[in-house]
Amino acid sequence: MDAVRVEVQEEIPVRTALAPLQPHGLGTMYVESLSSYFQRLADQHSVSPKLIAREFVLPRLGFNNRVGEVQSDRYWRSSFFNGMGEVPEQWCKVLGELTGVDSLRRLTLLPLNGLVGMHGSSSAVHRWCPRCLYESEVEDRPYGQLLWEIGCVKACPRHEIHLISVHGCGTEEAVPPLRIKPLPHLCRSCGRSLSLSSSGDFQPADEAEVSFARAIGELLASPLFAEGPRTSDRTIADFLSEVIRSHEGGYGIKAVRRIGATKGEVSEWMHGRHLPSLPQAAMVASAYGVPLADVLVGRGIDRLHPNPWARDSRRGVFSPYKRWGMAEDMEAQLQQFLRLSIPPTEAEAAGMLGTSSRELRRLYPEQCRAIGERRAQWAEQEATRRRDERLRVVEELVNQMVCEGVIPTIGRLEERLVGIPKAFLFKERSACKRTCEVGKAKLGS
Ligand SMILES: [Zn+2]
Ligand SMILES: [Zn+2]
């Protein structure tokens, strides 16, 4: 009797406030994003995402009604909703309780929290692969992928085309605005499927973009994105110190060259002062031929395949006797350095060619000048790019505070800033203050 009763009890599903909708693509590269899931969840109950947010989620997050009303539609449309901050953390918890589905963290970048920095992790615009969407529509389960929400991913690894962010809506067959359903595969302005493109021909992505997208996709399919908390506290810092000891003869500079980062960056990652961004971590992984998921948790050192680039650096220690034989080769290499996306300094160039700066300047004064100029120009662009990137993170943090109904201030920014030196807030104080003011104004409206 008892056994029968137990069996019956097990079959009674747990009652939850909302339907236990299952996410699509779990455990694959093409895992669904939280924003897509949230829209489908609302649709399953025949209501808008806004209503679910206002009635079910925001009260559980301690919002008062006034802020709740203003914010109820902002969250799931914002770029950090699928990221690794507090907002996705809280929403996954609440939505998990409401639906009884406990895998929702896997639809965001939360599993990467503490392993990579935020830079490049969320896309400011909504993007998609029209062919993936078409295929998911054919299978009658259209959904949006987490991969499309990651800013540094530019291509679809399956179809090897660029992700797109513009629908090219036609006026024909457009759905009246009020009848447009918020669903992951429908255009927010014309209401038609995003798999329909006006031009029909999709731009092929280049090899580097595709392999980068694939590396990130493999990360999403890795055990890091499986259920359950991380069991190890190892990070990329452990990977770097071990790889330098075991494969670079203890010379950090060799790792710096192989990875293509700066000395300062590598040292900060190694000492855990800053986390590398997702693209930077991918550079480390590709420099050593190890899956990104392994590098991030300090594994894979026993099976790496270092990129031969830096291994050649000590080849043929410079000797004047070899000068004529090597001249042509050196000149060609110097030319090549000018075309690198991260051009070396004169000293680095000399190091890579196995000679001294002085000798290099004596033999190739023209090329050395060009290398110096190219490097200075790159450094300037890099500084601007980094400043812009950091200001965007500040803006994102301010938006996050606004969504939470918190007044954005420099002090609060400082508390939340991860992956950016705090000195930045002081150096760019006026720009950051302006961003806070804009946020305050939004909160007041
Ligand atoms: Zn695709
Ligand atoms: Zn459209």
Draw up the topology in text:
Elements: H1 2-11, H2 34-44, H3 49-60, H4 65-71, H5 86-99, H6 130-138, H7 207-220, H8 236-247, H9 252-259, H10 263-270, H11 278-288, H12 292-296, H13 323-339, H14 346-352, H15 357-363, H16 365-404, H17 410-416, H18 423-427, H19 429-444
Helix pairs in contact: 2-3, 3-4, 13-16, 15-16, 16-19
Would you give an account of this structure?
The chain is an all-alpha fold and 445 residues long. It folds into four domains: 1-230, no CATH class; 232-313, Orthogonal Bundle (434 Repressor (Amino-terminal Domain)), CATH 1.10.260; 314-379, no CATH class; 383-444. It has 19 helices and no strands. It is globular and about 75 Å long. The chain starts with a helix and ends with a helix. The chain binds zinc ion (2 copies).
Indicate the percent of residues in helices. 40-55%
- The proportion of residues in beta strands is under 5%
Give the low-confidence spans: 1-8, 309-327
Q: What is the makeup of the main sheet?
A: none
The helix count comes to 19
Task: List all distinct small molecules, including ions and cofactors, that are bound in this structure.
Answer: zinc ion
User: What structural class should be given to the helix and strand makeup?
Assistant: mainly alpha
Taking all residues together, what is the mean pLDDT? 83
Can you tell me the number of structural domains? 4
- What is the H-and-E element order? HHHHHHHHHHHHHHHHHHH
Distance between the termini: 64 Å
Rg over alpha carbons: 26 Å
Shape: globular
Q: How many E-type strands?
A: 0
